[in-house]
Amino acid sequence: MDSEIKSSRKKALTSQAAVVMRPLLIACSVAGALALAGCEKKQEAAAPVPEVGVVTLAVQPVTLNAMLPGRTNAWRVAEVRPQVNGVIKKRLFTEGADVHQGQQLYQIDDAPYRAAYDKAQAALMSAQNLAQRDAKLVADNAVSRQQYDDAMSSYRQAQADVETAKVNLDYTRVYAPISGRIGRSTITEGALVTSGQAQALTVITQLDPIYVDVTQSSTEMLRLRKELKSGQLRTTGAGDASVGLALEDGTAYARSGVLKFSEVTVDEGTGSVTVRAEFPNPEHDLLPGMFVRASLDEGVRNAAILVPQQGVSRDTTGKPVVWVVNADNTVQQKQIVVDRTIGNTWLVNQGLQAGDRVVTEGVQRLQPGIKVVAKPASNVHVDLGLDTSAAAQANGS
């Protein structure tokens, strides 16, 4: 009995001790958690303010260029055809060589035409003698006036026949109508040719200067005219506009051309307008039919805003955004509207203004509203009016 009483007393004491210890354990746990949270807050408070590289934007005049696709076209093209019938006796040029205007290219058999010329000359002499005789007789009233008039008419007809025979004889020698590069011959010696035949004997192409025909969309042309009219753009100057050229392999053509004219109608199929430029081509580097890209000056935007490409990213919708450092050195993300690339920058139409500090370094650590230390950007080549020194002055104020 005594042992049972002792056991019951011991269990009661143990239960009382557990009840007393439970609040103490809870209190210790809470205290530990509070201490841990305090340590974390101290660590957060001790975290350094992130540094970012920025550029300060400024307005500036910028010449806008348009790169338009196009093809080269010969300045002159002459298809050489025979003017008389006959057999080709000689070809007097080298295929692919340069020829000059007036150079003989072919010789057509001239025997029948020379005989016709000699016959016409003989008929002319006979008609001339008859006209001279009748002129004396009509003065003495020995022949009628009608007979004399007929003799003079025959004389003039004989003169015309001689001229015709001479022209046909000259046509047996085929000359180059223009200077330029001559192509292959479509016929050989011994071939029969006819006057006005459809097939050309050869083709001569004048390569210097050379045309470049490019296409521009009608909507883009309307936009440019509106911007020029509103004053957003101004022309680059008087006279013919200068045009640059990039070849098929991407290299720049050494010589600049001039804009000659623009078509007055829009192609219904493509909705584009053809613009023609003229380029010097003394070395014949440009050949007809080559694909090229022409750079045309559109005009000057007087108050352009340029932002480095390193500072522009895309949001989840694909729209361009930038991080901007505010006056209190907090950052915010802005959505912008860009027009085109100019060098290593974007031309901005909306969303930024002069004096904005755009982050180009340290973007990965940014969150909206956090404080930063703005330093001049080191990853941006300072050109086109971008100011990196102003960033340090704004940060220090």
TrEMBL record:
Subcellular location: Cell envelope
MF (Gene Ontology): transmembrane transporter activity
Domain Multidrug resistance protein MdtA-like beta-barrel: 209-299
Biological process according to GO: response to antibiotic
Domain Multidrug resistance protein MdtA-like barrel-sandwich hybrid: 76-205
Main location: other
Domain Multidrug resistance protein MdtA-like alpha-helical hairpin: 113-172
SUPFAM superfamilies: HlyD-like secretion proteins (SSF111369)
Entry GO terms, CC: plasma membrane
Top-level division of the source organism's lineage: Bacteria
Pfam families: Beta-barrel_RND, BSH_RND, HH_MFP_RND, RND-MFP_C
Multidrug resistance protein MdtA-like C-terminal permuted SH3 domain segment(s): 304-365
Family: Belongs to the membrane fusion protein (MFP) (TC 8.A.1) family.
Protein name: Membrane fusion protein (Multidrug efflux system)
Species this chain originates from: Paraburkholderia eburnea
